[in-house]
Amino acid sequence: MHVKTKKISFLGLLLALNILLQLLGSYVEVSTLTFMVISSLCLGIAIYETNLTLGGAFLIASAALSFLLLPDKFHCLTYICLCLYIYFQEVIRRKTFLWKHQKLIWVPKLIFFNLFFLFPALSFFPELLFATKIQWNFWVYVGVILFAQGILILFDIFYNRFIPGYWIVLKKRLRIDL
């Protein structure tokens, strides 16, 4: 497999920016999730500019570096969850027919999110989601699940608007030519 050196150097710089954003997010406690979301967009840029294989390598490298460098491992887990969702979305976009049907695309996204992230978090690690002790009943579960689905929809809309729209404009302004 022959990869252009421009793409490899771009992915290296993007990985450095990604880790810098994650470290900034772990030290600036007010906007940790904002920095995690922005750093996970670097994976989307890597996949958009190269392919799924190099994007997967970028995901593995960024997950390993964030695990080694971040002081809080929960932030690393949050980042990896966001990146896995982005990677799953890009696999659906490039490898299936579902991308042509905008309403059908949400079925695998919601199944993936609920099965691999929300269910394990609520079942095994609820103390990681909430700092205080909560009395869990049916309505609290329903509220948390609906809130998580809303956050997922906002993240998905933000990601899908960023890559095709804002990244192309930013790429032209920064004169990035791959």
Can you characterise this structure?
79% of the residues lie in helices and 0% in strands. The model has no long low-confidence stretch (mean pLDDT 83). Helix 1 (5-27) runs parallel beside helix 3 and helix 5 (106-124) crosses helix 7 (138-173). It starts with a helix and ends in a 5-residue tail after the last helix. The longest helix is centred in the C-terminal third of the chain and has 36 residues, at 138-173. The protein is globular. It has 178 residues and is mostly helical. The chain has helices at 5-27, 32-49, 52-69, 73-95, 106-124, 126-129, 138-173. The chain has 7 helices and no strands.
Question: What's the topology here?
Answer:
Elements: H1 5-27, H2 32-49, H3 52-69, H4 73-95, H5 106-124, H6 126-129, H7 138-173
* Overall pLDDT metric: 83
Question: Could you tell me the strand content as a percent range?
Answer: under 5%
Kindly report how far apart the N and C termini lie.
Answer: 17 Å
Profile the largest sheet: none
Q: How many DSSP E strands? A: 0
Briefly note the structural class of the backbone: mainly alpha
Which geometry do the CA atoms define? globular
What is the quaternary state of this protein?
single chain
SSE order, one letter for each helix or strand: HHHHHHH
Question: Radius of gyration over alpha carbons?
Answer: 17 Å
